[in-house]
Amino acid sequence: MNNTENRRETLTLDYERGYSYDVYVDMTMCGPGGAVTPSGWQKLVVSMIERHLRNIGMGEQELLDRLGMSWILLSTHITIMRRVRLGEHLTARTWNSGTTPPIFRRDYEFIGEDGTRAAVGASYSTLLSVGDRKFCTDRAIIESLWLPEGEKLSQAPRRAPRIDDSAFVPVGDRTALPSMTDGMGHVNNTRYGEFVYDALTPDERAAVGGLSAVDVWFFAEIREGTVFSVRRAELPDGVAVCGVLPDGTRSFLMKLTSGEKDRV
Q1: What pLDDT sits at residue 261?
Q2: Are residues 171 and 145 in the same domain?
Q3: Which of 124, 156, 188 is the last residue of a domain?
C-alpha cells in the first residue's frame, strides 16, 4: 500500500476537525476604532491556516524540503457573522473541503467565547514550484496531499466577479517596497488588504466593523520595485478595489460587502 492509499485508509473526517486554535484579535489587525480591517481578517485566516498546516505536516518548510513546492493563495472568502473587536479571543478550526486538481479548497470557522460563530469562510490554493515558479500539475504530488473532504460552510466564489474596467476610478500609484516582500520574493498576500484599506474613504474605514463579507482574488504577483495603480469601484452592495500592473494586468481584486448598519 502506497502513502496515498494509506492516508485514504486511515484518515477520517474528524482528523482535521480535531485541531483547534486560540486566535487573539490584536492591535495590528484593527483600525483606530477597534474594528478588524480587511488585512486584519487576512492575517487571522492566514496565520491560523499556516499553524494548522504545520501541525499536519503540510507547512511551508515541509513542502519546500520534501517537494520543492510552496502553497500559493488564489482567493479567500470570509463571511462575517457579527462584529469582531480588538482584544477578542476566538477559537478557530480549518479543514480540507474539496480538491479539484490542481486547486485545493479549505474551509474555516471562528467561534466566539459564547460558542457562536463569528465568521466562516474558505480559501482556494494551489502548489507552486519554487525553482521554476510554475504551478504543479503532477497528479502524484497532488494526491500525496489527499485529505478527507469536509463540510463547506459558505458559498465561497472561486472566480472573481466581472467588473468592467470602466467602473474603476484611480486612487493613486503604489510602489512595492522591500518591507512588503516575503520569502517567495513577492508582496505578501496580507499586504493587499492594506492597499485596499488606504483606498477607502474616511467614512468607509470607520464602517469596516459592519462588513458582512471580505473577498480577495489574486491574479498576478507584485514583485519588489513594481509601481502599480490602485483603483476602486462603487458597487450596489459595497466597494471593490483592484491593483493594476504597468502592463495593464490586474494583480488583485478585493470586494468588501456592506453589512447591516445596526450590526453590534
Answers
A1: 46
A2: no
A3: 156
Q: What is the CATH number of the domain that holds 252?
A: 3.10.129.10
State the pLDDT at residue 9: 60
Instruction: Give the structural domain span for 136.
Output: 1-156
The three grid cell numbers given for residue 145, joined into one nine-digit string: 496531499
For residues 120 and 229, what is the distance between their CA atoms, to the nearest angstrom?
31
**For position 43, what pLDDT does the model report?**
95
Q: Count Cβ atoms within 10 A of the Cβ of residue 130 and give its class: 0-12 exposed, 13-18 middle, 19 or more buried.
A: middle
H-helix segments, the chain: 3-10, 14-17, 38-55, 60-67, 139-144, 189-199, 202-206
Are residue 214 and residue 121 in the same domain, yes or no? no
Parts of the chain with a pLDDT under 70:
1-10, 260-264
Residue 264, domain member (yes or no) = no
* Residues 6+ positions from 145 with CB-CB distance below 8 Å: 58, 104
Pull the grid cell for residue 255. Answer: 470586494
Residues 104 and 167 in one domain: no
Q: Is the pTM of this model over 0.85?
A: yes
Q: How many domains does the chain have?
A: 2
Helix, strand, coil share (%) of the chain residues, nearest 5:
25, 35, 35
pLDDT in tens, 144-190: 898 999 999 999 999 999 999 999 999 999 999 999 888 777 888 88
According to DSSP, residue 175 is labeled E
Nearest to 75 by CA among 189, 243, 244: 189
206 and 151 housed in the same domain:
no
Report yes or no: 218 and 73 within 8 Å, Cβ to Cβ: yes
